[in-house]
Amino acid sequence: MAQRSLSRMEQIGIYALIIMAGVTIYTRFIYPGAGRKFDRIKKETAKIQAQVASLEQELDSGRTDRKIRKLKKDLGKAKAALKEAETHLATDEEKDSLSARIIQVAGAQGLMIRNFSRITDQAVIRQLTGRDDPLQTACYRINLDGTFNRVVAFLKHIDQMDKMITMQRLHMGMSEKDTGIQMEVWVTL
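and the corresponding structure tokens:
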């Protein structure tokens, strides 16, 4: 049998087939990560396109404007609540008159005031209130003697005052003469 030599086109076809087979084997078996990377990039692109579409739809539907209006409404409510809360807090000018009212209430309830003093130790105030700025807090220590019913009436009157008074500590015990109760109250205004 005679051997015939391949024509130029046949040689190019064989070389192209060998190159294509080599690339296919390389991408499928030797380096399969390229296909996975391409699939991952395709999925991420689809996800980003979906997000862009939903944002465009929100913008078109006016949902963003409704959210902004709702947030402004909530802000207005929060400001109103803050203003109402501030009406229950005593201002610096009111703290002195409020402390005098506490003494008047104790006297009106028939309690004997043994001690009424302002606490000025900043560390103690910080410990009582947990606030970083103890200078804005007025703390008082009150020692009273009286019957149980009078002490309860005093505490109710303090609780019903229009400004917020916080009782930080309350100690009760029998008086030295067994005539009633000794009470020590630490309050903040």
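(Above: one complete record from the training split.) The mean pLDDT is 79.
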